[in-house]
Amino acid sequence: MTMDGTFNPTRALLDLLDLSNGGGARTDEDVFVGTSLPEPRRRVFGGQVLAQSLVAAARTVEPGRLMHSMHGYFLRPGDTEQPITFGVQRLRDGRSFSARRTHAYQDGVPILSLIASFQAPGEGLDHQEQMPEGIPDPETLPTTAELLGGYDHPVAKAWAHRRPMDIRHVTSPLYVEPGVERSARNAVWMKTFDPMPDDQNLHRAALAYASDYTLLEPVLRRHGLAWTAPGMSVASLDHAMWWHRPLRVDEWLLYVQESPSASSARGLSTGRIFNREGELVATVAQEGMVRVPEDTRPAG
Question: Where in the numbering of this chain does the Acyl-CoA thioesterase-like N-terminal HotDog domain appear (predicted)?
Fold first, then answer.
């Protein structure tokens, strides 16, 4: 909230990532505590706990070492009305790399388990996959608020007005109606609404936050499903991410996603994130649970 009581999405994101020290002497864990944004169903957004876990890990690494990879498992749903405790174990500190394990706890049990690696920047080989051509500029695309602002539903209102990221679909949005094409591909532009501090690890953690929003949409699009499909249950199971180059999450980033497979009530998606200059700044992979009642599954 701002001083006048209005909701500021970027300020809310920075507050979420400003973890408090858990206090007490450090044994084999450094302890931090975080809060959550309210959600209509009281369920902690997975990207939030990912980002907070990464911030906690980064607090224990010497300055100048940047997160370059993480692998995490979502173990239990989190409750937005309870604080989250983050325990960080210092696994290794080498000459160039540091490894950390973070567990996020509620009610004494882990809701997320994550290992992240940090690196002191160095020189080496350099190549990348090219950014897709023919993508419309984000300024020409409708905002989520424009797409959902007219719906009188708590989830629609939360997605339209209380998400910390400005997300604009290049492919047709799946909020209410299924996409026209049954393609296992999806693309969005995204950024924060306001500028962020010049802290590269903070920008990378914020990108992890945003990377969880639409990554399973290629699975839904391929099977003619929208987020409003009756009886559908979707949940992230795991999340992997690699950061390749410096980035700013307060500048437009293109998130190109595809799903190579879905089976056994699970869907796998991968994503590539480019800045407007065409640099590949990050790669993401996630498997999610996608359960749809048999009598509501689209044919084909």
Answer: 43-119
Distance CA 247, CA 97 (A): 20
Predicted model pTM = 0.94
Structural domain containing residue 166: 9-120+139-296
Q: For residue range 238-284, list pLDDT tens digits in order.
A: 999 999 999 999 999 999 999 999 999 999 999 999 999 999 999 99
**166-214: pLDDT as tens digits:** 999 999 999 999 988 899 999 999 999 999 999 999 999 999 999 999 9
**Residue 179: both structure tokens together:** 């996409």
Question: Would residue 53 be called left, alpha or beta, if left means φ above 0 and alpha means ψ between -120 and 50 degrees?
Answer: alpha
Number of domains composing the chain: 1
Distance CA 79, CA 43 (A): 5
Give the CATH number, domain containing residue 149.
2.40.160.210
CA 244 to chain centre: 16
The reply to whether 128 falls in a domain is no
Exposure letters 84-105 (e unless 16+ CB within 10 A, then b): bbbbbbbeeeeeeebbbbbbbb
